[in-house]
């Protein structure tokens, strides 16, 4: 939907609604016919008179400046006394004058409507104010490129032009300008002579000869080499054996840490003592293990003996109960019998085995201590 603000850009007349028009009378038809014939005659005469008129020539966009560009450039050079468009750095967020913002906003809206109308093709550019002749612009660019290429070709042709010159032997020859310049330089070099050329070395070896002190260095370089030799590392190669020194480290040592001596002999004696201590420790450990194995064997034998006695006692108790059920007489005779050794052993309390094992473990601890 088009805005009512773009009406002055489109130049469109409002359409008339003829659906509800009135009936046309015969008198109005005759007047319309006469008026139409007069218009046709006037248009024919005007077309004949305007046929000889020439159209105005289109202005070159590169020859003419933009409208009011001179005024804008002059305004830029003038000092800006007003602070309307001065850039302000504030922290309170103050904006510019409301009138300035409204004017800028209105101009931008007009430009936007104009661009939109130009994009739709609704703007009639009769005076070709908004058009650009890109074909002419491209043609002028090509002409400029050709002129630059022709200038380069002309410079190359000048270098390749044949001229006459005299060479170093006095002969007149023909060649390019570069050849003539080269011959002139050679002639000047010959006139100057060998005075400015570097002299040949006097100590050049020619023929068969024996070189003596070919690599003899001069005094400054020899001094530098001697200084480097003095700065050389004179430590032993390979370096001597260096053992770990716990005193150089600040850390907590373990329980079994042992600091060896830096002296080789003392260090060797300390190592031998440690080996002897280790051998003695292993010997005592084996003896203790053998004693503990013997104790375990004894405990196991006594445990088996106690288990056998308990089993026998339980069997006897079972038989006694069975005999009591069979007859009271046998039960009375069983009670009057004197106690035997087996009865005494069977009466041993069940916690006796645990007490024996505790006593054996105490003896082992005493042996270890």
UniProtKB/TrEMBL annotation:
<feature type="region of interest" description="Disordered">
    <location>
        <begin position="1"/>
        <end position="107"/>
    </location>
</feature>
<dbReference type="InterPro" id="IPR025066">
    <property type="entry name" value="CCDC174-like"/>
</dbReference>
<dbReference type="Pfam" id="PF13300">
    <property type="entry name" value="DUF4078"/>
</dbReference>
<feature type="region of interest" description="Disordered">
    <location>
        <begin position="135"/>
        <end position="202"/>
    </location>
</feature>
<feature type="compositionally biased region" description="Basic and acidic residues">
    <location>
        <begin position="1"/>
        <end position="16"/>
    </location>
</feature>
<keyword id="KW-0175">Coiled coil</keyword>
<feature type="compositionally biased region" description="Low complexity">
    <location>
        <begin position="25"/>
        <end position="51"/>
    </location>
</feature>
<feature type="compositionally biased region" description="Basic and acidic residues">
    <location>
        <begin position="264"/>
        <end position="306"/>
    </location>
</feature>
<feature type="region of interest" description="Disordered">
    <location>
        <begin position="223"/>
        <end position="352"/>
    </location>
</feature>
<feature type="compositionally biased region" description="Basic and acidic residues">
    <location>
        <begin position="135"/>
        <end position="147"/>
    </location>
</feature>
<feature type="compositionally biased region" description="Acidic residues">
    <location>
        <begin position="148"/>
        <end position="167"/>
    </location>
</feature>
<feature type="compositionally biased region" description="Basic and acidic residues">
    <location>
        <begin position="229"/>
        <end position="252"/>
    </location>
</feature>
<protein>
    <submittedName>
        <fullName>Uncharacterized protein</fullName>
    </submittedName>
</protein>
<feature type="compositionally biased region" description="Basic and acidic residues">
    <location>
        <begin position="86"/>
        <end position="107"/>
    </location>
</feature>
<feature type="compositionally biased region" description="Basic and acidic residues">
    <location>
        <begin position="168"/>
        <end position="192"/>
    </location>
</feature>
<dbReference type="GO" id="GO:0005634">
    <property type="term" value="C:nucleus"/>
</dbReference>
């Amino acid at each position: 939907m088009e805005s009512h603000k773009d009406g002055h850009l489109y130049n469109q007349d409002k359409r008339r609604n003829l659906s509800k028009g009135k009936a046309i009378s015969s008198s109005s038809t005759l007047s319309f016919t006469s008026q139409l014939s007069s218009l046709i005659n006037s248009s024919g005469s005007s077309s004949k008179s305007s046929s000889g008129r020439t159209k105005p020539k289109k202005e070159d966009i590169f020859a003419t400046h933009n409208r009011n560009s001179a005024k804008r450039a002059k305004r830029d050079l003038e000092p800006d006394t007003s602070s309307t468009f001065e850039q302000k750095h504030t922290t309170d967020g103050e904006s510019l004058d409301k009138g300035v913002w409204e004017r800028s906003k209105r101009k931008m809206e007009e430009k936007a409507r104009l661009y939109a109308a130009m994009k739709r093709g609704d703007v009639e550019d009769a005076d070709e104010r908004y058009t650009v002749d890109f074909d002419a612009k491209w043609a002028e660019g090509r002409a400029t490129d050709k002129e630059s290429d022709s200038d380069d070709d002309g410079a190359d042709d000048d270098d390749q032009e044949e001229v006459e010159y005299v060479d170093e032997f006095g002969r007149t020859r023909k060649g390019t300008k570069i050849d003539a310049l080269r011959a002139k330089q050679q002639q000047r070099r010959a006139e100057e002579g060998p005075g400015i050329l570097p002299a040949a070395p006097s100590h050049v070896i020619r023929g068969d000869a024996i070189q003596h002190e070919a690599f003899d260095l001069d005094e400054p370089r020899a001094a530098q080499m001697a200084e480097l030799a003095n700065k050389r590392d004179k430590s032993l190669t390979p370096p001597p054996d260096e053992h770990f020194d716990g005193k150089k480290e600040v850390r907590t040592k373990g329980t079994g840490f042992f600091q060896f001596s830096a002296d080789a002999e003392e260090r060797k004696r300390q190592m031998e003592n440690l080996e002897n201590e280790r051998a003695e420790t292993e010997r005592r450990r084996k003896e203790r293990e053998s004693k503990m194995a013997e104790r375990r064997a004894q405990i196991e034998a006594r445990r088996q003996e106690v288990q056998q006695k308990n089993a026998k006692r339980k069997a006897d108790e079972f038989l006694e109960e069975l005999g009591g059920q069979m007859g009271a007489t046998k039960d009375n005779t069983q009670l009057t019998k004197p106690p035997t050794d087996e009865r005494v052993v069977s009466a041993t309390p069940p916690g006796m085995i645990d007490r024996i094992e505790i006593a054996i473990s105490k003896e082992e601890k005493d042996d270890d201590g």
